[in-house]
Write a structure and sequence with these properties.
Helix 6 packs across helix 7 and helix 13 crosses helix 14. The chain is an alpha/beta fold and 424 residues long. It has 14 helices and twelve strands. It is globular and about 55 Å long. The protein has a domain of 149 residues: Leucine Dehydrogenase, chain A, domain 1 (Rossmann fold). The structure holds glutamic acid. The site of glutamic acid has 13 residues, from strand 3 and helix 12.
Length: 424
């Protein structure tokens, strides 16, 4: 195992503080000047809106929505929109900053942003969700733009919501502008390979790490937390590599079979069952917390923030953690994992496959020329391998964890751009 310098970061479950804790450590190591540090510490723009929406029962409800642009130094800002009751300003701020670092690591010409609406989509009808999404788009129509700020799916949003966004935005601008949003349905200018891109990238990142750690995929047992767009595809691609996926989970709980779970069957089961794993046959029901502590080699948290924390970090047994979710490990837990010699492939590297194919979608929209799936996959895989190498090299050079290495790589790039562009 690689020798690393222990970095001391403050532990917190506040996502923005968690981002800053790593950022400050990396800034210190590279000797980032105070002015640039101050620019990058805060988002460049915060837009908060209150959206009145007609509900099906005749009432009007006000929903709070955000779009936060952390940086647009390297290009138009990019990042998804999430619908969840957990959405608040600090969460969106952290997610926006992570997008800046993620895009820099993926080597795509974008800055970072994130959007969110505080709502519980499971309790809303399709009509209510459509009215909410369109109201949000109208409110953000001067923020969004194919050369300004380009949203995409995130937690609880997908091609359906992106279709409403492109339609609303294009009607406001009186021109069809597919490049204003990515993750669209294929027939509206989406890219082949976009849906599965994040999960596939998680697998590529895991395979690159396993090569370095000399782990044989055929002898590797994995647990995947989360069975949405990221976790289900990550599990599917792990299985295709010969990795034995022994546990999967979603909001209904976790499902464990030491002999391995048939992922394609689980995907079919979830599809036929309102996208939920309840009632999955051939697996023992355990909790999401127990899944994280299983005796596996590879752990892929692909659900949400703050899953590996100071509370459970000592019980983690995996050798390798690949973060499909954004922010699943707290900054304090990082330190313990590092001491235990557990290698973490951080979110800003591991889940960058999604935004990479978003970039390909945007390029195709602007050219009006669409690529075959093989071309998308080949370019995305190559990009993930290059990103992995850049972060690995930075972590080796500075003798730090992969996470801090990734931050160092991203921050050097963004800081250079800030210095070259200057301010006025
Ligand atoms: N929401 C995804 C992420 O966190 C994708 C963002 C995008 O494609 O712009 O990376």
């Amino acid at each position: 195992m690689k020798k690393t310098t222990t970095v001391v970061a403050k532990d917190t479950t506040n996502p923005y503080e968690s981002m800053l804790a790593r950022f400050d450590v990396a800034a210190k190591i590279i000797g980032l000047d105070e002015e640039t540090h101050n620019v990058l510490k805060v988002p460049s723009k915060i837009v908060t809106v209150n959206l009145p929406v007609y509900m099906d029962d005749g009432s009007t409800r006000i929903f709070e929505g955000y779009r936060i642009i952390h940086s647009n130094i390297l290009g138009p800002s990019k990042g998804g929109i999430r619908y969840s009751m957990m959405v608040d300003q600090d969460e969106v701020k952290a997610l926006a900053a992570w997008m800046t670092w993620k895009c820099a690591i993926a080597d795509i010409p974008y800055g970072g942003a994130k959007g969110g609406i505080t709502c519980d989509p499971a309790k809303m009808s399709v009509g209510e969700l459509e009215r909410l999404t369109r109201a949000y788009t109208v409110a953000m129509s001067d923020v969004f733009g194919e050369n300004q700020d380009i949203p995409a799916p995130d937690m609880n949003t997908g091609p359906r919501e992106m279709a409403w966004i492109v339609d609303t935005y294009s009607k406001i601008k009186r021109a069809y502008i597919p490049g204003v949003v990515t993750g669209k349905p294929l027939h509206l200018g989406g890219s082949l390979g976009r849906t599965e891109a994040t999960g596939r990238g998680v697998m590529i990142a895991a395979m690159e790490a396993m090569k370095k750690l000399k782990m044989d995929p055929k002898k590797t047992k994995a647990a995947v937390q989360g069975f949405g767009n990221v976790g289900s595809y990550a599990a599917h691609y792990f299985e295709a590599q010969g990795i034995r996926v022994v546990a999967i989970s979603d909001v209904t709980g976790a499902y464990y079979n030491p002999k391995g779970i048939d992922i394609n069957k689980a995907i079919a089961h979830a599809e036929a069952n309102g996208r939920q794993l309840t009632g999955l046959k051939g697996a023992e029901k355990i909790t999401n917390e127990q899944l994280l502590e299983l005796n596996v080699d590879l752990l892929a948290p692909c659900a949400m923030e703050n899953q590996i924390t100071a509370k459970n970090v000592n019980n983690i047994k995996a050798k390798l953690i690949v973060e499909g979710a954004n922010g699943p490990t707290t900054s304090g837990a990082d330190e313990v994992l590092q001491k235990k010699g557990i290698v973490v492939i951080p979110d800003i590297l591991a889940n960058g496959g999604g935004v990479t194919v978003s970039y390909f979608e945007w390029v195709q929209n602007r050219n009006g020329y669409y690529w075959p799936l093989e071309e998308v996959v080949q370019k995305a895989d190559a990009s993930m391998k290059k990103a992995f190498k850049n972060c690995w090299d930075a972590s080796t050079k500075y003798k730090v964890s992969m996470r801090i290495g990734a931050y160092i790589f991203a921050m050097n790039k963004v800081a250079n751009a800030i210095k070259s562009r200057g301010h006025f």
